[in-house]
Amino acid sequence: MQISRLGLPAPRQRRAFALTPLADIMFQLLIFFMLSSSLTPYSVLPLHSSGPVADRQPGPAQSAAAEQAPQASVPGGTALWNLEAGKLRVQGQDFPLEALPGLARSLRDDNPEAAVVVIVKPSARVQDLTTVLEQLRTSGIASVQLSAGAG
Predict the structure, then answer these.
(1) Residues 69, 73, 78, CA angle at the centre, nearest 5°?
(2) Percent of the chain with pLDDT over 90
(3) How would you label 15-37 residue by residue, b for 16+ Cβ within 10 Å and e otherwise?
(4) What pTM, to 2 d.p., does this model score?
(5) Which residues make Cβ contacts (< 8 Å) with residue 129, sequence separation at least 6?
(6) What are phi and psi of 90, to 5 degrees?
């Protein structure tokens, strides 16, 4: 310790805080998390079905018959449901969301281990998706997958 002319101790010199080591650590952490993260796209779903599903517009007679006896199953065990604003399209037929309990029941009765892939169109509302997911859970369908659909 140095003593000044007046007999008081000289003030200590302050060491400067260097930011270089902090920047080095930040870059090392950045590289670590970039390398350890998964870059797999989450929108890709493997679909296994026994055959193609027709995507056609139903006529008036088909729509009336479909509302009376909804069929929701696909022979391969995986049903593809297109969710749009306020309606579902199942095997090319449009159903209002009010027909959802009958569709889910029909699917479960045909195949107790059936799976459903809900393709959510951009026009679908969050409430529509919530309604579909709750109804499928209530109906006892355990395997439900979501996929983003094109406009």
Answers:
(1) 160
(2) 7
(3) eeeeeeeeeeeeeeeeeeeeeee
(4) 0.49
(5) 83, 118, 120, 146
(6) -120, 120
